[in-house]
Amino acid sequence: MERRLVKIGEAAAMLGVAISTLRKWEETGELV
């Protein structure tokens, strides 16, 4: 299976959250 990187804005849109939310999740260890 091919792994594809996505930009943070794309990931936020896919998950329906703000970019700042993804950054917070990364800082708190909720997102790896």
TrEMBL record:
<dbReference type="InterPro" id="IPR009061">
    <property type="entry name" value="DNA-bd_dom_put_sf"/>
</dbReference>
<dbReference type="Pfam" id="PF00376">
    <property type="entry name" value="MerR"/>
</dbReference>
<dbReference type="InterPro" id="IPR000551">
    <property type="entry name" value="MerR-type_HTH_dom"/>
</dbReference>
<protein>
    <recommendedName>
        <fullName>HTH merR-type domain-containing protein</fullName>
    </recommendedName>
</protein>
<dbReference type="GO" id="GO:0003677">
    <property type="term" value="F:DNA binding"/>
</dbReference>
<feature type="domain" description="HTH merR-type">
    <location>
        <begin position="5"/>
        <end position="32"/>
    </location>
</feature>
<dbReference type="GO" id="GO:0006355">
    <property type="term" value="P:regulation of DNA-templated transcription"/>
</dbReference>
